[in-house]
Amino acid sequence: xxxxxxxxxxxxxxxxxxxxxxxxxxxxxxxxxxxxxxxxxxxxxxxxxxxxxxxxxxxxxxxxxxxxxxxxxxxxxxxxxxxxxxxxxxxxxxxxxxxxxxxxxxxxxxxxxxxxxxxxxxxxxxxxxxxxxxxxxxxxxxxxxxxxxxxxxxxxxxxxxxxxxxxxxxxxxxxxxxxxxxxxxxxxxxxxxxxxxxxxxxxxxxxxxxxxxxxxxxxxxxxxxxxxxxxxxxxxxxxxxxxxxxxxxxxxxxxxxxxxxxxxxxxxxxxxxxxxxxxxxxxxxxxxxxxxxxxxxxxxxxxxxxxxxxxxxxxxxxxxxxxxxxxxxxxxxxxxxxx
Length: 339
Ligand code: NAI
Known about the structure:
The chain is of the alpha/beta class and 339 residues long. Helix content is 41%, strand content 18%. The longest helix is centred in the middle third of the chain and has 17 residues, at 146-162. The site of 1,4-dihydronicotinamide adenine dinucleotide has 21 residues, from loops.
């Protein structure tokens, strides 16, 4: 049986890292039927009159799973982020970002192994902004709901329990944002009582940023609201080699969209310079979500060997291997592991 997956190659370096990832997935010998939508964001707006065509949402509702490359969002003006819209419209409330050191990837720390659970649909990214022209004042509403907080916090605790991971750290700013962040912290404390076998602590966001750049090995599962999670997950990506190597997944109760953490990198687009590792690792998460553990392990082991060997590195990690060459070399290793 072939897996029907919605494929969104995005823009910038998106189509390059997508082609590389599909090449690696082919080596797993699983069958995929890719339902591809090349236009998302600016190109969809130009051709179809909307940055996020309804046909893409319908496709994900049907296939349940999408593999998505980055899409550029205009800064300050223009259309609303299609990433934020996708997460909100499909109710993909859990943004899961593992940040794990891989031997051979240059980074300041070794043995970092964090998973960040970022609430993905509300907080300061709720999309509720107003502008008072008369007084030249802009407001953003950071909505935190009990239901929205409970489901991401439960997701994190259940993951920690199932994978025997400790501690769970809730990150907040409840000293200042007493109602919004305060409620998130209060709910996390309530959940910690329901999961007595999972260690629990909390950190204020500014302290957490410092702690992570000094002692990242002290932390394991981190659960937090949308904006703090966005910042902490890029910070954590920096601890293990940068944006080119870190995976992400947006998961809801019904659908899941797997995507790299990085953006469309317009500065290197179309030059075969992009590191496809982040999207490949997102695809590995997708394989685990589909229950294809052997194929996922083959991809993980292949990547680990590639980096331990250190012969084929893309430009972001100081090498000169092109995007597709990296993918082809990895595919050879993955094929050996699935045999
Ligand atoms: P970016 O992640 O695109 O680039 C930041 C830096 O990292 C650049 O120097 C870039 O060359 C490098 N980089 C990123 N990915 C890389 C890779 N795979 N291999 C090698 N180098 C890589 O972030 P930036 O510049 O802030 O955003 C560019 C555009 O991407 C914006 O329009 C932004 O809205 C969009 N974006 C989209 C995301 C998504 O679709 N999920 C996530 C983040 C940003």
